[in-house]
């Protein structure tokens, strides 16, 4: 299984688009395990840049 940060980012973006297409436009929290792909700087930067700041 490919568990690279780039693959994880792609999955997250596709999942976000899928949810948005079904009317879920606000994600409050992203919960992951502590795998290296989730701790990688590119993944955390992507999540941070897509975060809704209230």
Blueprint of the fold:
Blueprint: H1 5-21, H2 36-39, H3 41-50
Helix pairs in contact: 1-3
Can you characterise this structure?
The protein is an all-alpha fold and 54 residues long. The protein has one domain (5-50). It has three helices and no strands. The chain has helices spanning 5-21, 36-39, 41-50. The radius of gyration is 11 Å and the shape is globular. The mean pLDDT is 90.
Which ranges are low-confidence, i.e. pLDDT below 50, for 5 or more consecutive residues? Answer: none
Silhouette: globular
Average of per-residue pLDDT values: 90
Radius of gyration: 11 Å
Q: What is the β-strand count?
A: 0
* Class from helix and strand fractions: mainly alpha
Q: Name the helix and strand elements from N-terminus to C-terminus, one letter apiece.
A: HHH
First and last CA, distance: 36 Å
| Total helical elements | 3
- The portion of residues assigned to helices is 55-70%
Largest sheet: none
